[in-house]
Design goal:
This protein is 70% helix and 0% strand. With 125 residues, it is an all-alpha fold. The chain has one domain. α1 runs antiparallel to α2, α2 packs antiparallel against α3 and α5 packs antiparallel against α6. The protein is elongated and about 50 Å long. The model has no long low-confidence stretch (mean pLDDT 91).
C-alpha cells in the first residue's frame, strides 16, 4: 500500500464512520449536538480531512465518549496531533511499526495489506 492508497483507505474509513454515525443519530432532534457533529463529519471534504478531522474526532471523544469505541483507531493515528493522546502507548507503537513496514514494502514495490495487518495486530494487543 503506497501513500496514495493509504490516503484512500483512511478517507474510506472516515466516510464509513461518518455515514454510520449519521444513521445512528438521524432520529435525534435537529439541534442535538451529537447529530450536528455527525453532520459535520459527513460534510468534511476529502481534501480537508487531515485538517478538520482531528478537531471533530476530539469533539467526539470529549463530548460523546460513549461513541468513541466506534471510531477507527487507524484514523486516530492518521489524524495525529491531539488524537494521539487518546491512544495507548502500545497502539502508537503498533501503528508506527505498520507505517514503517508499509513504506518499506512500497519502496520495494511489494504489496502490504495494511487493513489485514492492522486488524490482526490490534486484536493481539
Amino acid at each position: 500500500m503506497d501513500d496514495t492508497q493509504y490516503l484512500h483507505y483512511c478517507r474510506g474509513l472516515w466516510q464509513d464512520f461518518a455515514d454510520t454515525l449519521a444513521r445512528r443519530t438521524a432520529a435525534l432532534d435537529e439541534e442535538n449536538p451529537l447529530r450536528l457533529l455527525a453532520q459535520e463529519c459527513q460534510a468534511v471534504p476529502e481534501a480537508e480531512l487531515y485538517r478538520d478531522g482531528s478537531a471533530l474526532a476530539m469533539r467526539l471523544f470529549s463530548h460523546h465518549p460513549e461513541f468513541a469505541p466506534t471510531f477507527p483507531r487507524s484514523l486516530l493515528w492518521f489524524l495525529g496531533g491531539d488524537c494521539l493522546h487518546v491512544m495507548t502507548d502500545e497502539e502508537i507503537a503498533t501503528f508506527q511499526a505498520l507505517d514503517e513496514e508499509r513504506q518499506a514494502c512500497a519502496e520495494r514495490g511489494e504489496i502490504f495489506d495494511y487493513r489485514a495487518e492492522a486488524s490482526a495486530r490490534l486484536r493481539l494487543s
